[in-house]
Amino acid sequence: xxxxxxxxxxxxxxxQSRADECEKFLIAVxxxxxxxxxxxxxxxSIIIIMENKGKTPSELATxxxxxxxxxxxxxxxxxxxxxxxxxxHMSQMGLDFEDSTTLEASRRLSVRGIVSFxxxxxxxxxxxxxxxxxxxxx
Length: 138
Known about the structure:
55% of the residues lie in helices and 12% in strands. By secondary structure, the protein is of the alpha/beta class.
């Protein structure tokens, strides 16, 4: 099981330089060939960034509807305890709140890695940062 960071979806949704790699990985999740989680905060972050980039309410609704059809994707709702523990990660590891909640969720869910382009996750204890290309069949 994996945890997907917001930047993986945003890379594709905003048609950035590594969109193709992200699309292949996300198709695998959509079909259920890869199993992963996202947190409610990650989902909200994606929506807020899309809105800030000029996406319409209709485009936001389309994205949200598509997420519901991903066979291999589950939503993890951060608890108050998760959020409190995230503030400890902020102090101990110098992460921002969103990255800290992602780290806490990854530990709670015992995932094998965080799929992300965010190098802040490199070198953290007990978790590996993976990029979509690391998870695609050659």
